[in-house]
Amino acid sequence: MLFQIAWRNIWRNRSRSLVVISSIIIGVWAGIFILSFSWGLYKNNINESVYKQLSHIQIHHPAFEEEKDAKFTIQNTDQIVKQFQANDQIASVSSRVISMGMITSPTTASGVKIYGINPAFEIPQIALNKSVREGTYFDSGKDNEILIGEKLARKLKIKLKSKVVLTFTNSNSEIVSGAFRVGGIYRSKNSSLDEVNVYVQQEHLRELLELKPSESNEIAILLKDEKQLDSIKKYCVALVSKAKIEDWKELSPELGMIIESFNLYTYIISGIILLALTFGIINTMLMSVLERIRELGMLMAIGMNKRKIFIMIMLETIYLTVIGVPIGLLIGWLTVIVLGKTGINISMFSEGLASYGFSSMIYPALDQEKYMIIVTMCLITAIVSAIYPAYKALQLNPSEAIRKI
What we know:
Helices cover 56% and strands 19% of the residues. With 405 residues, the protein is α+β, with helices and mostly antiparallel strands. A six-stranded mixed β-barrel has the order 2-3-8-5-7-6, surrounded by four helices. A two-stranded antiparallel ribbon has the order 11-12. Helix 1 (2-10) crosses helix 13 (306-342) and helix 13 runs antiparallel to helix 15 (368-394).
């Protein structure tokens, strides 16, 4: 009986009930959209970092990360790379020779991180060839070809075919220099890295550093399925002895922290939206109670106890929420599905986003767990919102309520 009465009560003032339901729908949709947009933004940044810079796993000499000295190398890297390539769980693997140094143009100089790469191996690894905007990706066949970032090229005031000099310390702690010619200028989605990372032929840099043919400073591994990360790390430990093996979360702790903090971010954003929604529901239900003072007084007078009055008011609020939440979830889910395929273009902010490693094309995404969190918080909001109006109804005196004009 109470369920029927509560259901009929919410439709006695159809306009007011529809306003509350609409508010719930908009609130749920807004929560889903904001969270999906934020996660799409962060996910894009994580993917750019993993697939265009870090890879899933990196292997170094234990002292290399601290000293940044090219003399700390991994031995027999060619053989190790071949063994990794034979593993069907690994998508691609490459070895790199790395040195910190200075790049000098006819007008100025700048500090850079010099990567000696095997161009063919890096195509499936970080797809650097797709970022080339001017020139070619090591197509000349010359040893002294260098690939630099667009931002660095502007800083050095150089262009394609310009001559630059790299100065760095070799494995014997001697300062050496090498002349290079700009064969390509690239632009990635992280302009801060474009300013410091330069790429040259691995063998040529290895000669300048006076390293052995099989020595490298870094081995980068990209997996087919990230779920295999732990098992591949164990495989790396068994294959490469006396080396430091780190996954992308260890290499870039801020990216790992983004994932860990997103759950908290979910509660905060949802909480703010639902807090505003709570006051709207309380206001509406309180008005509904105050308009029915005589009716509630009559119900009490004929024998309906306060517990049933309380449950009736609670049911009215829950009904409104149960109607609004599924519709809001459906609209929110459809929004995420559509925008997840088409994307949201925020190219007007592309320059600012690129400085922090974010793309200007955002693809919203949200996992099922976040939807369940939003549903749970909405139901809690409905229950909490109904308590005060229901409490006010219990304070009515039947004899006084009946005479209320």
